[in-house]
Amino acid sequence: MEILNYEYVIPDEFHTCVKDAIKKYATNSRYSEEAIDSMLKKPQSMASSIGAIRDNNLSLFRGKFAEWLACIEYNSLKNKGIVLMTIINPDSTSKADLLHIIKKGDKYEAIPGPDIKCGGSTYVFNQWNKIVNSRYDIPMVDMDGILTTEEGLKMLTDKQREQFEHLKQVHPRKKPIKSEWNKQDINRLMMDYLKYVSDGITPADSEDKPFVASKENRDRIKDNLSKLPSKIENRSSWDEFCKKASELPSISENYLNPMTMAKVEKKKREEVSKKGSKVSTENIKYVKVKGKNNKTKSVPGNTIVNKPKQKGFLKGVANFLGYDSPTEMFFAGAKVFTASVVEAASRKIANKMFGGGPDSGPSQFDNQGNEKTYNDSIEIKNSTNERTNTNNSTHASPRAHIVKGHGQHYNTKKGPIWKEKEPFPRGKKDESI
Question: Are strands 140-142 and 177-178 parallel, antiparallel or unpaired?
Fold first, then answer.
């Protein structure tokens, strides 16, 4: 991405040899001197091929992209000896897509590089047939491995495979060149490049947003790249291209180029900014309170208002009742509850034994012929439970009566206590029994 993000100019010392190569291998022999000079001076970039994108069709653009990948491959892996560098041919209509610049003695010479072909099996085979029969001096790189891998050859029809074998016999020294790139590499890198120039998404991003070759995306790419020539920092020479490409095999896996580093730094700044925003928003909290009709509403405040937790509420209740903790309060309550259960059970047993209660059935006294009345049974029941209700007077009775001494539980700050109470009169004094 870093290499493809620049545009490159041909060094002045190579102008003469490149000019001669343009004339020699051009398909248009009517180029004027001015037209060729303009080609030599014009910066070359991957961005200049954006116009090859058609609606929902990247085939033509993919062919241009493959030329740049092949150029990177030659400079990083294949060039040796007298070959100084490989460049993209300034003449886009030439028989040779690439030019090799070599040095012979004190002079430079530009010789034809390969024709770069990729795409469907029929298209690649037809191009190979044309090159072998009419452009024998031009090599061909098979970028998608159609003619250089067993998997690719299986895609040929029987007739195409027969013709291919015949060409090998007739021209034994002429063979298609296998690329180190494969179809998956080309597609992945092309998508990375298009996502970067259209939306600023770098390969370092985890986001896997697909690129759509729509008119909107094409216009956005062209708009983003229209300022490219004015960016001096994005302009370099083919010398630098060759140097960067030659460094690719030795680059570590965790290498971050300036483009990716800028993206990473931007993400860090955004995270710091988000944390700052979060801290500032915590200065305003909302507390839930109940209004009329038991509906909750939010009450804003300028200071932090903590929503009370259930545990804190229980602790407050325990302290109010004189307990040190909710646990102590629950434990004391459990003891009181247990005592109440035992007392109620005792009353139930007494009722069963002595016939107390309206639903207890016949008592032992009834079975023995005892003719005690229902009121007498209540008196026995109350005596058993140490509770007196003289002459059928109840606790809330308006008749005058004496409440017998009894005990009662009280909750204090020191805990629950038992307090004995002396007998005392209750009810109206003047009302006769």
Answer: parallel
38-72 burial code (b ≥16 CB/10 A, e <16): ebbeebbbbbbbbeebeeeebeebbbbbbbbbbbb
Measuring CA to CA, which residue among 315, 302, 303, 307 is closest to residue 289? 307
In sequence order, what are the residues at sequence separation of 6 or more whose Cβ sits closer than 8 angstroms to the Cβ of residue 408?
A: 418, 419, 421
Quote the radius of gyration of the chain (alpha carbons, Å): 49
What residues pair up with 112 in beta bridges, in sequence order? 99
CA angle 54, 56, 58 (to 5 degrees): 60
pLDDT digits (tens, 9 = 90+) for 366-409: 444 444 443 444 443 444 444 444 444 455 555 677 777 777 77
β-partners of residue 421 are 406
DSSP code, position 54? B
The single residue listed with the structure tokens 């003695």 is: 105
Contact (Cβ atoms closer than 8 angstroms) between residue 152 and residue 127? no
pTM equals 0.60
The residues near 230 (Cβ < 8 Å, ≥ 6 apart) are none
Pairing of strands 424-426, 401-403: antiparallel
Instruction: Using CA atoms of 202, 85, 18, 182 in order, give the dihedral in degrees to the nearest 10.
Output: -50
Helix (H) or strand (E) holding 350: helix 326-354
Cβ atoms within 10 Å, residue 284: 12
